[in-house]
Amino acid sequence: MTEQPRFPFAEHLSPQLLKSPWWIGHIPFAFELVARLRPRTIVELGTYSGSSFAAFCQAVEACGLDAKCYGIDLWEGDVHMGRLEEDVYRDVSAYMASIYPTIATLLRKDFTEAAALFADGSVDLLHIDGTHTREAVSNDFRTWLPKMSDAGVVLFHDINVTIANTGPSARKFGVRHVFDRVKRPYPHFEFSHCWGLGVLVVGTHAPPPVMELVELARDQAFSDYFASKGALVSRRFEAMGVSLPSHRAYSSTTPPWRRAIGALRRVGERLLRP
């Protein structure tokens, strides 16, 4: 008899929405995490064009969960990305309303302001992916930590953005610093591919299948598996030739986000070469 995959949701689910390249390598892990955590409430801080948020919604639907997903963003842009065109919000809003009308809710609010809408202990999965300065990420974690349930898991994207792999614009990225500072009291692990993802189990009663991930992550084969699955998603995105969402620079000089995107593309191309 053929042995069943250890990560069935990562193995068999295929992402339905791919709009930008920077997070999609973590979608297979997101599928598996949602299946194991079985959250009731998922909150994403920084939804942008919707690839990660759609993955959470897709996993909720595939698992048959009675759960709600909240994507929070001003859709205005930030110091890293420049100013967003309004089409970015209109496109993701239309998609969620059409595909996940009973699961997805988009909140066009400041992250701190939005936190007041959630009861303490009510959020099972939090994805921090907004402005990436030390101050902003620290504030996001500090503000939302009381909202986490006793099963809670927090994800930090872009912990592996460095000057070496991105260029001078990485000086403004503080996610690595914040993750390293807050992770010690909690079970945690991380991925280095696709700009890095930190996984922090902040709940004191996380489900055993989630705690199993913490143990499995001690083996390099665990990271290698999800990196390889993520690379397949990234190759699929490359083959699709999707146009990236529109941005406008804040000044007449070449903006940091444009330099960062160019660097990300170059590194991505190298990583995806056979």
Question: What's the structural blueprint in terms of helices and strands?
Answer:
Layout: H1 8-12, H2 27-37, E1 41-45, H3 51-63, E2 68-72, E3 77-78, E4 82-84, H4 86-99, E5 104-107, H5 111-115, E6 123-128, H6 134-144, E7 148-157, H7 163-166, H8 175-182, E8 188-191, E9 197-201, H9 208-216, H10 220-240, E10 247-248, H11 256-272
Parallel strand pairs: 1-2, 1-6, 2-5, 6-7
Antiparallel strand pairs: 3-4, 4-10, 7-9, 8-9
Helix pairs in contact: 2-3
Quickly list its features.
single chain, 274 residues, alpha/beta, Rossmann fold, seven-stranded mixed beta sheet, three-stranded antiparallel beta sheet, 10 strands, globular, disordered C terminus
Structure description:
This protein is an alpha/beta fold. It contains eleven helices and ten strands. Helices cover 43% and strands 17% of the residues.
In percent, how much strand structure appears in the residues? 15-25%
What general outline do the C-alpha atoms trace? Answer: globular
The number of helical elements comes to 11
Instruction: Give, in spatial order, the strands making up the sheet with the most strands.
Output: 5-2-1-6-7-9-8
Measured distance between first and last alpha carbons: 32 Å
Estimated helix fraction = 40-55%
What's the order of the H and E elements? HHEHEEEHEHEHEHHEEHHEH
The named CATH superfamily: Vaccinia Virus protein VP39
The assigned CATH architecture is 3-Layer(aba) Sandwich
Got a strand count? 10
Number of domains: 1
